[in-house]
Amino acid sequence: MRQKLVARFGENVPRYTSYPTAPHFNASVDATVCRGWLQGLDEGDEISLYLHIPYCDKLCWFCACHTKQTRHYEPVTTYLRSLHAEIATVASLVGGKGRVRAVHFGGGSPTMLKPEDMVALGTALRNSFGFLPGATISVEIEPNDMDDARLDALAEIGMTRASLGVQDFDPKVQKAINREQSFLQTKTVVDGVRSRGVGSVNLDLLYGLPHQTRESVASTVTQALTLEPDRIALFGYAHVPWCKKHQTMIDEAWLPGPAERFAQSQLAAQAIVDNGYEAIGLDHFAKPGDALAIAAHTGTLHRNFQGYTDDCCEILIGLGPSSISQFRQGYAQNMPSTSEYRRMVDDGGLAAVRGIALSNDDRVRGWIIERLMCDFAFSAIDLVERFGEAGQRLLLQSSSMALHDPVRLLELDGDRFVVPAESRPFVRSIAARFDKYFEAGTARHSAAV
Fold first, then answer.
1. 264 contact partners, CB below 8 Å, separation of at least 6
2. What local confidence, expressed as pLDDT, does residue 61 receive?
3. Which of 105, 151, 340, 407 has a CB 3.0–4.6 Å from the CB of 110, allowing a cystine?
């Protein structure tokens, strides 16, 4: 049965870290609109901040992030001046309203920053925004960047969660993706952040990479588990060379097919669960008692541009080129070009160039998609109580899918629509059925499994 589902639903669909998804953003949301949304925040709002560092000192060929390689630090120094300018402008528009609940440094490679520059960014944020007690600070770490001075700098800015990219420990796979990183390097960084008081460590693992086999995936998972991470994210490699040209360095003949990808994902997931981790949504795992596991149990798990999260903030402010902000009114994305971004923010402007204002229909579909992605279920009663007539219309579509689809992607259990266990690996394809933009869109996406 599952192999038939793999064949039918191993399609290319969005990852649904937002709804509507980024390919459907447009120029109707610009810097002027974003300015109004920032100024319209309420005193009691809780805010998340995302800071994008669009540079790496070495480009990994599997990467689908917005980044560029630089062998010199001068472009980074120049960029940081612009990032500080944007922080100052955004803070002035927020005007002291709201409090920061969470900060995430992403990239690129945030840890290629010099220690003093990382500390300066942390200081600028705290001087510009009010922080709630216990605010979380998450940093994506490239182990090849790390030394004691950088570890000390991360401790100084108050990092509470370290996220390390592992991908795969097999040397043949690492060579094929241009990412050489030994187990010892990874362990040294994990030990280093823990010795500095960081209470949560996440490891990112990938399946579907060139030359990966079930055996190599199993070996990597086994080694990763010896580090006792608090969380694990298990992603399928997104091969999108039409938008990330460096992925053309990966010969498609080296890539496992859909059935093998699926087998790798299921083997890895089972091994992680067998070691006491709880499965969270589609592709995350956490130790029992971790905030992510608690959120999954209490129905407060959410999904944003970093994946699954226990962050409950309605407001996410993205800083840096290509960063996406989320407001109650909609989404706004910054100019992707670093040089154009700098030109826009250096004299006190905002860099938002595209986005989308949410309609009532977007809100109800977005809620359904998020609950499917997080809980594999949603309540018909909640749907109608939250969204009224708009919810009632989507209730009819959900009922039709549950009652008439012979593949049983969605079942009705009391007042809840539930994705059965055997269909959960294909939840992105199920979510796509509620995406009104998907069929009409021209965007190309990564494989669902």
1. 207, 208, 212, 213, 214, 217, 256
2. 82
3. 105
